[in-house]
Structure formats: C-alpha cells, structure tokens
C-alpha cells in the first residue's frame, strides 16, 4: 500500500471522464465549482487558466494544469477574451475549425469525481492550481500517459471504455507524483505532506498505518517502525502531518471503514474488525463522531445515492 494511491482512492466517488477538444481564437469558458478535480493538458497551441483566487497561469504545449479542489475557474486563449459558462472540465465542447484553417489550440480536459468533504490532507494542502511545465526531459512517465490518453480519445477502439478510465487514474497519480517530486527538487525546505512523504521516519510510519490500519498500533510501536524513540517520533510526525500519530490513525481507520461500507455488503462487525475495533459498539461510536451517522445508515445513504439516476 502507498499513501498517495490511498489518498486518491479514499476520495473517489465515481469514474473519471475526459474529452479532447479543438478551439480557434477567440474562445473562453468558465467552469462552475464541482465535486471533484479538473485537469487541462495543452496538446497544441497555448491558453490561459484563470483560477478563482490565484494568479492566471499560461499553459504551453505539453503543460498540465490540475485543479484539485473543484473550484471555479476560467480557460481562454487570451486574458482579454470574455468567458462564457461551461459545464465541467470533462465536458468541454469543441469549436470546429473553418475549412482549411488548422485548429489554434487542442486540449485534453477531464474531471475526477472526488468527495471534497472528506479530503485527505495530502490533497487538501495542494495549491489551487498544480502547474507542471513541459520542460525537456521532465516527467517522462507523465508525458507517456498523456500521449496514450490523447491517442485513445482521438481514435477510440475496442476496449477504450476500460482503457480510458485506467489512463485517467494513471494521469492523476503521475501528476501528483511529479508535483511532489518538483517540491523535493526545489531549493526551498519541504513543508507539510511534501516533507512527510520524503521523510524516512514519518514516511515509514504512514506506510505502516496504511498497510495495516487494523493493527493495535501505539505511538511506541509506530516509533519502533521508524527507528526513533517515542517522543522524538511523535513530535516529528505531528509537525509534518499536522496531527498526532494516533489521531491520524483514527482518521484513516474511519476513512477506510467508509470505503468498505460503500464498496460491499460485508457485516458491520467485519468492517469494524478490519479497521481495528473488536467491539462493534465502539466502532459505531467512533464512526458517528466522524460522519455524524451510524455505519448502517451511512451505508444505506451511500447506496441510495449511488443508484440514483
């Protein structure tokens, strides 16, 4: 198990979607806030992203812009172009080029359906726009999946219905990995989860929690995994992760339990045991503190929402 993959999986509420679009200047669209994360990749030409709070970002060929918090944002060929309302980043309409005129901008746009009310702190601390520039030789894995995804959307074939969502998931993970790698290469000291993931001791403790959330962990046993003594480990973990080791453990247990309740019909007692609770009553009490409802009612509500048209 790895923390980055788990953070994305914990927030997922549906399948991602995307489209390949062609635009001729002038063009501009504004996306309303939505429950997920959007992305834009420039395959040809250039454009501008206009976040709600941050400064505008110019995107060139090969650049990736991820908007991880589902905030409203604009996209246009120029800062001077007016914006019209659009749906979400995964349903951006195309503007066909006039006869004999090549398209000025080709974009790969998409959206991930994520639960922003239960965000993993690793994703919650990301900036409003994660911008990855297409420097020569930078992030070859990310470039490869962009090429594959673009080709699959341009020429759908048998199996595309399975290939495209898998490539979109890969694109998201490679984008997040590339951003964290860039933070590590920056001359400034790492902070927050970027530092936590690259810290040998805290990273080892996080992986241990994610690999086995049902184990009867203590601060001492987690410290033993890292090779540090109890007090230095607790201080270091709290400083980088933002919460004490056992508080994060409880948060991750409840997040894991919610995913198990959504994903199958196993008895609540089995779910409780899997996340470290011998007593179903104690588990239900902890779950209600986290989600404001009982495990059984949460499952019924989530299943009803999933089946709704």
The CATH class assignment of the largest domain is Mainly Beta
Gyration radius, rounded: 22 Å
- Principal-axes geometry comes out as globular
Q: Structural class, please?
A: alpha+beta
Question: Given the structure, what is the number of helices?
Answer: 12
Number of domains: 2
Tell me the CATH topology of the largest domain.
Jelly Rolls
Terminus-to-terminus distance: 34 Å
Proportion in β-strands: 15-25%
Mean pLDDT, all residues: 87
The major beta sheet can be summarized as: 5 strands, antiparallel
Residue stretches low in confidence (pLDDT < 50, at least 5 long) are: none
List keywords for this structure.
10 strands; alpha+beta; 47% helix; 12 helices; Arc Repressor Mutant, subunit A; five-stranded antiparallel β-sheet; 17% strand; single chain; 309 residues; five-stranded mixed β-sheet; Jelly Rolls
Describe what you observe in this structure.
The protein is an alpha+beta fold. It folds into two domains: 3-185, Jelly Rolls (Sandwich); 199-307, Orthogonal Bundle (Arc Repressor Mutant, subunit A), CATH 1.10.10.60. The protein is built from twelve helices and ten strands. It has a five-stranded antiparallel β-sheet, covered by helices on one side. Strand 4 and strand 5 (57-59) form a beta hairpin. It is globular and about 60 Å long.
């Amino acid at each position: 198990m790895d923390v980055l993959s788990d953070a994305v999986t914990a927030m997922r509420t549906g399948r991602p979607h995307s489209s390949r679009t062609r635009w001729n200047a002038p063009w501009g669209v504004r996306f309303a806030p939505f429950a997920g994360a959007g992305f834009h990749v420039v395959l040809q030409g250039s454009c501008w992203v206009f976040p709600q709070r941050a400064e505008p970002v110019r995107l060139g060929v090969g650049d990736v812009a991820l908007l991880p918090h589902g905030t409203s944002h604009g996209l246009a060929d120029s800062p001077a172009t007016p914006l019209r309302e659009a749906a979400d980043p995964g349903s951006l309409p195309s503007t066909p080029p006039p006869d004999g005129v090549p398209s000025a901008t080709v974009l790969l746009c998409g959206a991930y359906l994520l639960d922003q009310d239960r965000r993993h702190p690793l994703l919650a601390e990301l900036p409003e726009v994660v911008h990855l520039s297409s420097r020569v030789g930078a992030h070859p894995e990310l470039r490869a999946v962009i090429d594959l995804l673009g080709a699959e959307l341009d020429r759908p074939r048998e199996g595309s219905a399975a290939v495209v969502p898998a490539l979109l998931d890969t694109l998201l993970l490679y984008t997040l990995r590339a951003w964290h790698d860039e933070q590590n290469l920056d001359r400034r000291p790492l902070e927050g989860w970027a530092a936590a993931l690259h810290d040998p001791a805290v990273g080892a403790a996080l992986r241990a929690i994610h690999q086995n959330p049902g184990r009867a962990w203590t601060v001492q046993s987690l410290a033993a995994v890292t090779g540090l003594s109890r007090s230095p480990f607790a201080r270091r973990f709290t400083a980088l992760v933002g919460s004490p080791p056992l508080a994060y453990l409880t948060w991750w247990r409840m997040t894991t339990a919610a995913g198990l309740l959504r994903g199958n019909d196993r008895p609540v007692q089995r779910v409780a045991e899997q996340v470290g609770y011998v007593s179903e009553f104690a588990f239900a009490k902890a779950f209600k503190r986290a989600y404001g409802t009982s495990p059984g009612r949460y499952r019924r509500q989530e299943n009803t929402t999933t089946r709704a048209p």
